[in-house]
Amino acid sequence: MKKSTAIRREMRQEEGAELRRKIGARIRELRKSKNMTIKELAEQMGVTAGFLGMIERGHRGFTNYRILLLSKVLDTSVHYLVTGKHV
Known about the structure:
Layout: H1 3-33, H2 38-45, H3 49-56, H4 64-73, H5 78-83
Helix pairs in contact: 2-3
């Protein structure tokens, strides 16, 4: 593998990790603004509180289905969860 390919892959992984952290922080912020516990939100989503905690900390990614479900449960747009901007 060429060195430049490995560098690009590493950069994409770092960018993905940063995006997961930002989205996780927005999820936590919205959850807290609605006075929900992590357990309550996890139950509404059908996941464990531990899994949701990993998402909020940016340690785990999520499927398109989960981000759509999060937007519905938290009453926000997918756009806001991903970008942090309201449309």
